[in-house]
Amino acid sequence: MKPYSLDLRQKIVIAYENQEGSIRQLAKRFKVSPDCVRRLLKRYHTFVVY
Q1: Cα–Cα distance between 50 and 37 in angstroms, integer?
Q2: Is-contact 30 19, C-beta < 8 A?
Q3: Which Gene3D superfamilies match (predicted)?
């Protein structure tokens, strides 16, 4: 399976940060698994300095 595009990954993180839905809702909206969304968010929060 090919990795998801950077564009898609960014859209998912931005949508979550803008509170556009829950992890399950975003997974359904972007046609990925909820675990994929969780992993993206974990990776994002690990590397982002506030």
Answers
A1: 20
A2: no
A3: Winged helix-like DNA-binding domain superfamily/Winged helix DNA-binding domain
- 40 CB-contact burial (10 Å; exposed 0-12 / middle 13-18 / buried 19+): buried
Q: What is the pLDDT confidence band of residue 48, given thresholds at 50, 70 and 90?
A: confident
The 3-state DSSP class for residue 18 equals: coil
Mean pLDDT of the chain: 94
Residues 23-30, mean pLDDT to the nearest whole number: 98
Q: Show me where the domains of the chain are located.
A: 6-47
Residues of the chain above pLDDT 90, percent: 88
What's the rounded Cα separation, in Å, for the pair 1 and 25?
23
Identity of residue 8: L
